[in-house]
Predict the structure of Magnesium-protoporphyrin IX monomethyl ester anaerobic oxidative cyclase.
Amino acid sequence: MRIVLVHPNYHSGGAEIAGNWPPAWVAYLSGHLRDAGFDDIAFIDAMTNHLSDEALRARLAELQPDVVGTTAITPSIYKAEEVLKIASEVVPHAVRVLGGIHATFMYKQVLSEAPWVDVIVRGEGEEIFRDLIRTVAAGQWPAGRAQIKGLAFRDGERIVATAAAATVKELDAINPDWSLLEWSKYIYVPLGVRVAIPNMARGCPFTCSFCSQWKFWRDYRVRNPVKVVDEIEKLVNEQQVGFFILADEEPTINRKKFIQFCEELIRRGLPDKVKWGINTRVTDIYRDRDLLSFYRKAGLVHVSLGTEAAAQLKLDQFNKETKVEENKEAIRLLREADIFTEAQFIVGLDNETPETLEETFQMAWDWQPDLANWAMYTPWPFTPLFQELKEKVEIFDFSKYNFVTPIMAPEAMTRGELLNGVMKNYRRFYSRKALFHYPWRGTGFRRRYLLGCLKAFLKAGFARTFYDLGKAGYWGPQSKEKVNFNFDRTRRIAPAQMDDWEAAADRASQARARRESRQPLVACGGSTAQLDEQPPLPDATPRPAGAAPSPC
């Protein structure tokens, strides 16, 4: 039985300015399938290769798969639906499968607007997709689909969702197959090396109101750090990967295992071969201030911090559980440890003003991170913050829900003025950095890395792919009143999905009440004292390979 996985051809002008990112979902799904005995698997990376619909059509006709699978985050959902529409026309006998976070939470919307989608995998895909493939291989599809947990599908005019599947408990049992990817095409522009996105943990114990990851992964689980380093060492040796970013929402939550991970990298001499970056919270950096130089020794060179907002009011609205002053201190601590810092700001809520945009710039310049990023607030319809703001959301063209397009219309600004204000922040921040910081601060690796980051910005800027500026028709302040974001305003929410939203609003309200009546969540499932504990610095002798993992 032949399985073909397709990564949809969607581009937004956001994170991809730093390079082409390898679709990790393909490696993790295909590795689990191979372990179950299914080895006739092909992969089509339509995004990296900019494949047209016609080229995709020809490739599917050539491969003649029995199953076609694709995935989608919210902005790529229409492209993913189109992949399966093409499959329905070219290989109508093939079972057409859609997974990912958007389809998981919006399956009623997807199955209403794209009835050619045979089945949706809801939640983590490895075990659910494997069970689905087994059912197809046994000739029990579609009769046996109702017995598989974690699916959604159409049964005549009805939309059916089976019981939710359990989360993957044995993450170490998943052996990703990275060989399917075209590694020569996944380049991290700042360093000009191959890049990978391995996964150490899944889930997050925090409940930021604008984020849906904690809802998707549900419970927080960590892999054996030695197994993760095994995977990274294999990527370095077999695929010549020179940079990786941990896909985790916050890999430093479990400090004991993160330390073990760093020790294992050092023990194997990998920091001389590969550098890496993470996203994490400022509170973890502040907590680990005595460990930052050790993290740098392990090859950690880039930390993207969810500072999110310059005003405490917005941090509280986002349920970030952080303070503005902690953001500044975390950046200072990282700078002293020679770790590059990237400050992330969320802008574009309904209460955004020119003054608040200016405040984020002044705060960023005062904090002096190496990089700063202003992301447009995107009202994921499956997040708590959406439930609070949904009456003010008027755009349901999900292809624009990409962090670079102003979905919300601030009361005090037009969308064009908002985009212009964000671009003004970028112009000022990076022009000053380019003139007075990047070429003159530090030598060797630091200078090369920062100039490489500047190169990535300039490359995307000249190509007008940065922030989708070319498509929007933005050419500078003089064009702010003429910007056209090309929203498809015919897009609406399916009645079945609207009913789910109303139910979700009730559940969110009840959950909020429960949160307010109990102690804050803590990481690792431990006590509050565990988060405040200051472990001794690792000694010069790293923990040997195969040592027992920490109990947390």
Remarks:
- The radius of gyration is 23 Å.
- Residues 310-320, 519-552 have pLDDT under 50 and may be disordered.
